[in-house]
Amino acid sequence: MQRRYVTVDVFTNRAFGGNPLAVVLDAEGLSAIQMQAIATEFNYAETTFVLPPWARAHTAHVRIFTPRSEIPFAGHPNVGTAVVLARELEANGGTPLDRLVFEEAAGLVPIRILRDGHTVAGAELTAPESLTIGPSASVTDIAACLSLDATDIKLNNHPPQVLSVGLPFLVAELTSKDALRRAKPNALTHEHILPPIGTDAIFAYALGANPEELHARMFSPLDGISEDPAIGSAAAATIALLATFRSERDGEIAWRIQQGVEMGRPSLIFGRTEKRDGAVTNVYIAGHAVQVMSGFIDLPAA
């Protein structure tokens, strides 16, 4: 039994940068155990499995797996999967799509296709959930998780706390890009600190030259991902929180999040937040994607 796949590098316009993703295009009939085995074999931060939609008005039902578990939502899998499906459709003579809707465990994910001329170049997703704010972690605990000093943790805007727009992360602001560069995950401390507050990953960031520019790193050794080169879901939750602190009551704020530099896989995430009457109403994450490989997975007979 064979299943076809395509890999793309997401949040980059060059191959071998950004965050790699495997997209299994014909996943109907695969069990969750088989999907997990395939995701573990690829060993990317995430692998997606494309299934027929439950509702005819939607594009596809998409399941997302890390090397160790299924997750309800993630950023770069949505961007990458949308680019792959839009390109596949057009390559097979279908009518070009400008918008897609994916069914996922976290809810419906609307996606807008981005083009370079007539060529599919990237995608922009709308986060499926409003921002939720969970438990906080102490400065001492987050510093230990990142192998940093307590003085490297910045508290001016918010404490280290769990944020989610579909997938929870412990988000911490650091005092400088140098502190971000020095961060290293301590897996034993992660295991002690993170599961009790409802997450298994830390998104650390430092502000850039302007308040709409973030430099970030994400660590999730408990999920088999020592470091992730680009994490759209955590970026979305973070900019949603930062937008709530802004004085603007209405309008749109554009954000740029740079990640993956320390790994040699530079990534660029574009974000947008919309506010109405002082509240954040929508969060968007966008980026480019580049196809790298395609082929077939040979599965053993049942």
Briefly summarize what is shown.
By secondary structure, the chain is an alpha+beta fold. The chain has helices at 32-42, 75-91, 139-145, 177-182, 187-193, 232-245; strands at 2-10, 19-24, 46-51, 60-65, 70-71, 99-104, 107-116, 119-126, 132-136, 161-164, 169-173, 202-207, 213-220, 225-228, 251-259, 267-276, 279-298.
Summarize the helices and strands and which ones pair or pack.
Layout: E1 2-10, E2 19-24, H1 32-42, E3 46-51, E4 60-65, E5 70-71, H2 75-91, E6 99-104, E7 107-116, E8 119-126, E9 132-136, H3 139-145, E10 161-164, E11 169-173, H4 177-182, H5 187-193, E12 202-207, E13 213-220, E14 225-228, H6 232-245, E15 251-259, E16 267-276, E17 279-298
Parallel strand pairs: 2-3, 4-6, 11-12, 13-15
Antiparallel strand pairs: 1-2, 1-17, 3-4, 4-5, 6-7, 7-8, 8-17, 9-10, 10-11, 12-13, 13-14, 15-16, 16-17
Helix pairs in contact: 3-5
Explain what this protein looks like in three dimensions.
With 302 residues, this protein is α+β, with helices and mostly antiparallel strands. The chain folds into two domains: 2-126 and 288-298, Diaminopimelate Epimerase, Chain A, domain 1; 132-283, Diaminopimelate Epimerase, Chain A, domain 1. The chain is 21% helix and 41% strand. It contains six helices and 17 strands. An eight-stranded mixed β-barrel has the order 1-2-3-4-6-7-8-17. A hairpin with a 2-residue loop joins strand 16 and strand 17. Helix 3 (139-145) runs antiparallel to helix 5. The longest helix is centred in the N-terminal third of the chain and has 17 residues, at 75-91. It starts with a strand and ends with a strand. The model has no long low-confidence stretch (mean pLDDT 96).
